[in-house]
Design goal:
Layout (H helix, E strand, L loop, with lengths): L1 H50 L8 H8 L7 E5 L5 H10 L4 E6 L2 H11 L4 E5 L11 E7 L8 H10 L1 E12 L6 H13 L17 H10 L3 E15 L1 H10 L3 H8 L3 H15 L9 E13 L2
Parallel strand pairs: 1-2, 1-4, 2-3, 4-5
Antiparallel strand pairs: 5-7, 6-7
Helix pairs in contact: 1-4, 2-3, 6-10
The protein binds S-adenosylmethionine.
Pfam families: Methyltransf_31
Protein name: Methyltransferase type 11
InterPro entries: Methyltranfer_dom, SAM-dependent_MTases_sf
């Protein structure tokens, strides 16, 4: 009798676990669809404002290339290549015998990357990093500012590992956490207080790999070895507070902008005041804000 109940209990637990798994998967899928839409909208602005000229934290692009030790003739995979900022620099290292493949889930980003990079040694593919599969194995893999976007980051890291040669190198950059990247947190911490559903359900926390311990743990869990993490301290000035706020709205995806526009006038005013207060420690005498911006770059091997 007891065994019968035990069996029923185990079956029920399995059913419930499966249902929870399905629910999470559904949230992930919805989040990924929204992310593709967002990047299709903002990729041109992102390319102009940050990626093309290596502005502020994007100075990390040169560091990633150095740390990955990319050599003549290497085959390199650039995961979530976006508009091709890293891919283009990889090309200058691999020479005509090498090859680089950039993958990204946004078709607009890939379109820009193709036009920006324009080189016979580079191929671009629209693909979800969770699902890529290649017959060849790559010497090096790069991934700049994307790991935190993947809802199932473990699945992506394991997939990346499968795409690499044994002893191949992964070089990956992420932003620091909220405290160390006030450019993001000054606004988002306050906005989410006024608009609790500002970041939609199912969206992973974007600073969850923003410390050495968190990033190291994630890479080790996926089976990478020889993990080293370097920290960089960059600076970025978004101008005065008025310019910071104006550009935040200008570069924002439509659904988030709508939520801010729907706020009552008095709430919007109070919200802006709270954001302004957060920026004061970084505001210079001439009114310009200069934010510090921490970046972590991980280098690891496929054992
Ligand atoms: C901040 S951008 C970084 C782009 C590029 N690596 C760079 O440094 O300029 C993040 C990129 O991740 C891409 N992305 C997000 N989730 C993805 C996924 N599941 N598979 C592939 N690309 C993804 C977005 O489309 C976007 O282009």
């Amino acid at each position: 009798m007891i065994r019968f109940y035990d069996i029923i209990k185990s079956v029920l637990r399995l059913v419930l676990e499966n249902m929870a798994g399905l629910k999470t998967r559904k949230l992930y899928t919805e989040y990924k669809k929204r992310l593709i839409k967002t990047w299709n909208e903002i990729a041109p602005r992102y390319h102009r404002r940050w990626a093309k000229d290596g502005v502020g934290p994007f100075k990390s692009t040169d560091e990633i290339i150095k740390l990955a030790q990319i050599r003549h003739g290497d085959t390199v995979l650039d995961v979530a290549c976006g508009t091709g900022a890293v891919t283009k620099k990889i090309l200058s290292k691999i020479g005509p015998q090498g090859r680089v493949v950039g993958i990204d889930s946004s078709q607009t980003a890939i379109y820009i990357a193709k036009n920006y990079v324009k080189n016979r040694s580079a191929d671009f593919i629209i693909a979800d990093a969770e699902c890529i599969h290649f017959n060849e194995k790559f010497d090096k893999v790069t991934c700049q500012y994307a790991l935190f976007f993947f809802p199932d980051s473990q699945k992506v890291l394991r997939n990346i590992k499968r795409c690499m040669k044994n002893n191949g190198t992964l070089a990956l950059a992420v932003h620091g956490n909220g405290n160390t990247v006030p450019f993001f947190s000054s606004i988002v911490d306050v906005v989410t207080k006024f608009i609790p559903d500002y970041l939609p359900k199912g969206a992973p926390s974007l600073d969850r790999f923003g410390t050495i311990q968190e990033l190291k743990r994630e890479a080790a869990k996926a089976g990478f070895s020889n993990i080293k993490i370097m920290q960089y301290q960059y600076k970025y000035s978004p101008g005065t507070f008025a310019e910071y706020w104006k550009n935040y709205l200008r570069y924002l995806a439509t659904p988030l902008k709508q939520k801010i526009c729907e706020l009552e006038k008095k709430d919007l005013k109070q919200m802006k005041e709270e954001i302004r207060t957060k920026t004061l420690p970084f505001t210079k005498k001439d009114g310009r804000i200069v934010f510090p911006w921490k970046v972590l770059i991980l280098v690891a091997k496929k054992p």
